[in-house]
Please model this.
Amino acid sequence: MFKLLLLAALIPAVMLQNADNSPHHEWSAARYTQCKGGQPMPRAVRIENCPGDVCDLRRGSNANMALDFTASAVSSTLRVTATAYVFGIAVPYELPSNIANACVWLDRARCPIDQGEELSYILEFPIGHMYPAISLEIEISLLDDASNSQACFKIQAQVV
Model:
């Protein structure tokens, strides 16, 4: 019984440390553009192993990204959405629920977030083995309780 209680206490503690232990400050500054509709842009975007204008996304690996942003509103939740634009067609990318909950992946912060709070968010974006080798544009948005964007950016990428 004691082991079960200890395990139940340790799992959330380990999950809450995921983003705090990331070396995201060492990743390359990425070239990114604003999303349509005037959504707030992050202050900075860094992507591991992406020093150029186009990021190579290796099949069967994870693309690791970090974005620094200033919260534009109070929110008790924060979720990430991803959309791939392939040949001009928007294709929503369904992230696993443990990744889509952005509150877990804030660096040295947790939800709720306050308006004006400066935050860093870490995203481990899975690249499937079956993806075709194509060029695409990826849009990442962090949405608050009211489904308003707290930060949104686009990058150019190619699956290799």
Confidence is low (pLDDT under 50) at residues 1-18.
